[in-house]
Design goal:
With about 400 residues, the protein is mainly beta. It is built from four helices and 31 strands. It has a 19-stranded parallel β-sheet that branches. Strand 30 and strand 31 form a beta hairpin.
Length: about 400
């Protein structure tokens, strides 16, 4: 037998194996056997999809790199997905509506373009031993996850974690995020910890229990901290600038600490935080480009460095803030600090943005200073005036 006849089958086998590892389209895995057949590939050039009818536990072993996507959509009966050696997914890692998936094990995975995990009600934990470090986008929505251990992403463009009812800790290692950050409607005691985050574009924190932003300095867009029933304190001690700031409807919130905040380039709202009965103090605040709209039960408002408010200015409290109203009244006017429409109501029974409640200095007597006191008008006229202010605020 010639050497050629011996070598030819070997070359053919190698060629076949190489072809199986390099395709231009998407390979569909129907069962565990299809996944096992990929074990000869250290790099799989292409995308992998799990067939919707798959019932087997799928293990993509020995593969170190998938250049394309890894996708499982509407695979309602697959209980386990793993890849013991996979370090990189060049495309998207998509798990959508995989109802019984309870095991997700990728111990070596460190890099993936995007993570999109949605509708995974049975997935309570993940095994990412090495820790996922690089991903441009992370979306985790409507899962059973109890922990994000292993997802300490340090470089990401967008970060959305929402509707995960058992998740009690949401963390992010990144120093900057170029897109949105949204944490919404997770566990009732969800703790949000972004220890390294310095810069963000837009951030929404809704229904959270604690917020830790020790390094945050700039939010180019708006920072929303809203609709939380257990959040008691907000501490962003290094925050200097935001495009807008909205702290609204946090029923247990008792303290806001932002001692370095100097500039709000949009609207500045602190509204309807029932337990915020102490001082509102922003010792470094100088400039508000939009409207300033505070209402609630606070006892004083400290803005000692305020130099420029270009939009409407509306402060209302059930507490006695008449002295503060007097100080603000002294700096109103087109060429003064507060340039837009002005209203300040002290000891009002129903503090709100609409400005319809009369302020009182003691007992039931209207306080002219408390209701934009530089205007000597009747209380009914003032009610109409503050209504106009509220309308303007609503448009901003």
């Amino acid at each position: 037998m010639s050497l050629f006849k011996l070598v030819l089958p070997v070359l053919a086998a190698v060629g076949t194996a190489h072809a199986a590892c390099s395709i231009s389209a998407t390979t569909t895995i129907q069962n565990a056997g299809d996944a096992s057949a990929m074990a000869t590939c250290s790099t799989f050039s292409g995308s992998i999809a799990i067939a919707t009818g798959t019932t087997d536990a799928i293990a993509i072993n020995n593969v170190q790199t998938i250049t394309g996507d890894l996708v499982a959509r509407n695979v309602t009966r697959m209980s386990s997905l793993s890849a013991d050696s996979l370090q990189r997914i060049g495309g998207d890692f998509i798990l959508d509506d995989v109802q019984v998936l309870g095991e997700l094990s990728f111990p070596q995975l460190g890099s993936v373009r995007t993570i999109q995990w949605t509708a995974l009600p049975n997935l309570q934990s993940i095994s990412f031993t090495s820790g996922l470090r690089n991903s441009t986008s992370l979306l985790i929505d409507n899962t059973g996850l109890q922990s994000m251990d292993g997802l300490s992403v340090s470089g990401v463009d967008s970060f959305t974690v929402s509707n995960n009812g058992a998740l009690q800790n949401v963390s992010l290692a990144a120093e900057s995020v170029d897109g949105i950050i949204e944490v919404n409607a997770n566990g009732d005691s969800a703790q949000v910890t972004f220890p390294n985050l310095v810069w963000a574009v837009n951030m929404t924190l809704r229904n959270v229990a604690t917020v830790e932003l020790p390094a945050l300095e700039v939010v180019n867009g708006t920072l929303y901290i809203v609709e939380s029933t257990t959040l008691q304190s907000i501490n962003a001690r290094n925050l200097t600038t935001t495009g807008g700031l909205d702290i609204t409807d946090n029923s247990a919130l008792a303290n806001i600490s932002m001692p370095s905040l100097r500039t709000v380039n949009g609207g500045f709202k602190i509204q309807d935080n029932e337990d915020l009965t102490g001082d509102l103090d922003f010792p470094s605040m100088r400039t508000v480009i939009g409207a300033l709209d505070f209402y609630g039960n606070f006892s004083s408002v400290g803005l000692p460095e305020l130099a420029d408010v270009r939009g409407a200015f509306n402060i209302q409290s059930s507490g006695d803030i008449q002295d503060d109203c007097g100080r603000f009244d002294e700096v109103t006017g087109r060429n003064n600090v507060i340039k837009g429409p002005f209203a300040c109501l002290s000891r009002t029974d129903n503090p709100q943005g609409e400005g319809t409640a009369s302020g009182t200095s003691s007992g039931s007597q209207p306080s002219k200073t408390g209701a934009a006191g530089h205007l000597d008008v009747s209380s009914s006229a003032m009610m109409g005036f503050t209504g106009v202010i509220a309308a303007m605020l609503g448009l901003l």
